[in-house]
Amino acid sequence: MRRSYAAEFAGSAFLLATVVGSGIMGERLAGGNTALALLANALATGAGLYALILSLGPISGAHFNPAVSLVMAVRGELPWRALPGYAIAQTFGALLGVWTAHFMFALPLWQLSHKLRPGVSLMAAEFVATIGLLGVILGVSRHRPHAVPDAVAAYIVAAYWFTASTSFANPAVTLARMLTDTFSGIAPASAPGFIAAQLLAALCVAAGLRLSASRCSGRI
Amino acid sequence: MRRSYAAEFAGSAFLLATVVGSGIMGERLAGGNTALALLANALATGAGLYALILSLGPISGAHFNPAVSLVMAVRGELPWRALPGYAIAQTFGALLGVWTAHFMFALPLWQLSHKLRPGVSLMAAEFVATIGLLGVILGVSRHRPHAVPDAVAAYIVAAYWFTASTSFANPAVTLARMLTDTFSGIAPASAPGFIAAQLLAALCVAAGLRLSASRCSGRI
Amino acid sequence: MRRSYAAEFAGSAFLLATVVGSGIMGERLAGGNTALALLANALATGAGLYALILSLGPISGAHFNPAVSLVMAVRGELPWRALPGYAIAQTFGALLGVWTAHFMFALPLWQLSHKLRPGVSLMAAEFVATIGLLGVILGVSRHRPHAVPDAVAAYIVAAYWFTASTSFANPAVTLARMLTDTFSGIAPASAPGFIAAQLLAALCVAAGLRLSASRCSGRI
Amino acid sequence: MRRSYAAEFAGSAFLLATVVGSGIMGERLAGGNTALALLANALATGAGLYALILSLGPISGAHFNPAVSLVMAVRGELPWRALPGYAIAQTFGALLGVWTAHFMFALPLWQLSHKLRPGVSLMAAEFVATIGLLGVILGVSRHRPHAVPDAVAAYIVAAYWFTASTSFANPAVTLARMLTDTFSGIAPASAPGFIAAQLLAALCVAAGLRLSASRCSGRI
User: Fold this and answer.
1) Which pLDDT band holds residue A1 (cuts at 50, 70, 90)?
2) Domain boundaries in chain B?
3) Does pLDDT of B220 surpass 60?
4) With an 8 Å Cβ cutoff, are C47 and B144 in contact?
5) Is the Cα torsion angle C174, C175, C176, C177 positive or negative in sign?
6) Which CATH superfamily includes the segment(s) C2-219?
7) Testing the interface with C: which of D54, D96, D156 to mutate, by most C Cβ within 10 A?
8) C118 φ/ψ angles, rounded to the nearest 5 degrees
9) Which residues, 6 or more positions from A102, have their beta carbon under 8 angstroms from its beta carbon?
10) Tell me, what's the pLDDT at A41?
């Protein structure tokens, strides 16, 4: 189990370094063209996530996301007692990743985002983004587990663009992105709404799984 | 069969949320650079479609497209009596997807597109786009069924760019895109021509399949 | 063999429609930003080629390129007597593809390119591009034949950017691109140099194959 | 072993032609938009690397990188006596690749870069980039060796964007890029810091491998 925690920690650190670092690079080079910065940010995140899931999936499942770990616990693929450790490793890994990005780009390590992402529509976008992410993971892992890295990476590239919130879809990532006042940051005032929407989506998916499981056992 | 309808409904909803949502995001951020908006739109659609076909393909075949369902019925891979249900689920799913995108981007839910896409050349483009899509699906599903998600997603990315109409290639999607006055919309006046070209392509492919099937049985 | 010729014809037509069509679309939308037009052109060509090789590979080998067919004949994977038919089908398919693109974009069907691509460096680029393409096909088809579509598509995306000539690497494609006065065209005055470089590369690779084959048999 | 050296030489040559050539093309066409030039550079490098690893992996392992060869020697997958030959082939191949790119773009063959890439943060970025690259190679090759080309290519695309140094992560490549005064060059004054960071990362990974190997054997 210690190897799993280490994998979740390292993977979340690299993931956040990728998200935050590519956001900084994109914003610096794009000269005000936000579409180009987001394109680089989305492609880098998708490509990095793909490499990370391929590398660490066999060790820990490569969740890097407490919402995913929660659903995996409901599904019986992660022991419940491992859930807190996963969530803690993911959150601290994500923080380390943010600071690594700041250090590489010679920025102050400690920052607080001022980018407000307010309103019901963005919370709805996070709900949709998380439902989609969990649906893709559950759907693909059941029938074609080897394609999970491909499917998750592709989904995230799409979700950066089709959700109005650019698809955080991950409570640990949302917490960590509060601590960067760069392209990918989120103001602490906006984070609770995002996290609530993400957890609500995870609970809905978990409830749906429970329901369909009880129906199936009812048939037997 | 109810699970199949639900999968077609959900998949079409996510597909349209992706097409319309990424179009809105692209247009908002690209600052008038239509090439950049279309690039984001194409990559997001291809990536999203890939994740959706991988997720839902094992349940319903992941058509999300009445033209595809028609050809699959001709080929004997979908029972004819399921065809109306598939088409209805696809169309209403697509509508829900458009409204989801509008809601996420805080736009009025009900819209009608004013973007005219007129003329014989665009109808020819839709004919070519649909022939190509169906050809790719039939060709790849025969010899390498596991690569269908990859091939369809790649084809759609290409077809966004090489067809003058940006490749709708899907009657349910065309209907739904009438109801968004954003980047990916189509004015109701132009939709019938697009749908006619798409159905004509589907009928040509279906006739070709019948012909080659009768030839083959003739040989036996 | 007739099915193979038909597959080479149809595939080359779709390939050229993709190359020329996405070039037109890219140039129209990019507003003078050639990098963006070439990016769209490269990604569309790579994605389209991937879908085409997956679809038609099992029928004809999906060469769409006389230089590839020549090397395959040397390698014994294509009967020598089929080589002329392949080359003719590829060339006429490519022409049909160019005209299809023109028709979809409502341009005059008959055009002659005025885009000069002169000089020894561009011929050297075509030589390098073709050597690389043939090397990738031979290397990957020997050890991982299922990955040929992926490898060829990826190579072409790279070669659009790293060769100064944007990597035609295909005599049939070069002939057809003389007939479009759009983004992807080549003036008839420059085409012979390109084709000579491509054929020289094919002959070098063929000679290398012969040499190593005779060495191997010499060892036995 | 001679075939392996030849494969490392040829692969490194094509890799550097891709990195330097696509950088020149990107800078020429992007009209001052560095984000667009880097996007083309990153995608071309990732796509080219993917094709090269697929083509040459079965012959030499497709390292193209002395840091990778060192780690493979520690892991016992490359004989120690082959390491100098690998490093020499990689370095001279990389030089040939730079000159090939210059020749294709009609530039003077001999150049020295004036692009300073100074400072501790960029060295830290190279350390992170190399750790990540080696981690991805080790992680993926253990459990899913067939996915190594995909994972490495995706990682490099991401690392171009998320590391402040655009991720050289390769001592042979760093040496060769001193000799091009174009987009992808590095001034000779900055190269030693980059190479030191890369080698330090390789030594850390090698030490980690040794440590875990001795622990494992200790358990037995």
Assistant:
1) confident
2) 2-219
3) no
4) no
5) positive
6) Glycerol uptake facilitator protein. (1.20.1080.10)
7) D54
8) -95, 170
9) A20, A108, A109, A111, A180
10) 98
